[in-house]
Design brief:
It contains four helices and three strands; from the N terminus they run αβαβαβα. By secondary structure, it is α/β, with parallel strands linked by helices. The protein has a single domain, classed as Response regulator (Rossmann fold, 3-Layer(aba) Sandwich), CATH 3.40.50.2300. A three-stranded parallel sheet has the order 1-2-3, covered by helices on one side. Helix 2 links the parallel strand 1 and strand 2. The longest helix has 15 residues. The relative contact order is 0.17. This is Nik-1-like protein. InterPro entries: CheY-like_superfamily, Sig_transdc_resp-reg_receiver. One of its GO terms (biological process) is phosphorelay signal transduction system.
């Protein structure tokens, strides 16, 4: 994200990601969500973020899922949770930059 000159926040796990989003949702134009994280995985974190947005009547933030698991079932689970874009690791900077530009986030 530094190379894209973007402001960013990090979280050690899915639970922390949800907490940071809920504390300051207006600070986020997109979320890069790793699917495999300790305490709470990215699928559950995405579901909780979407539930929070729904409850608060907020526009959904763009969530990009990052995973080393490129299986069809992993992709299906990610989209079912509310993920907008599914990316397999390693993600190239050019690919990420292109996606962010397409969605007017960069």
């Amino acid at each position: 994200m530094k190379k894209l000159k973007s402001k960013y926040t990090t979280a050690a796990d899915g639970l922390e990601a949800v907490e940071r989003f809920q504390e300051n949702p207006d600070e986020f134009s997109c979320i890069l969500m790793d699917i495999s994280m300790p305490r709470m995985d990215g699928i559950e974190a995405t579901k909780q973020i979407r539930a929070f947005e729904n409850k608060e009547g907020r526009e959904p933030v763009v969530i990009l899922a990052l995973t080393g698991l490129a299986s069809a079932s992993a992709q299906q689970d990610a989209y079912a949770s509310g993920v907008d874009v599914f990316l397999s690791k390693p993600v190239k900077l050019k690919e990420l930059s292109s996606i962010l530009r397409e969605r007017s986030l960069a």
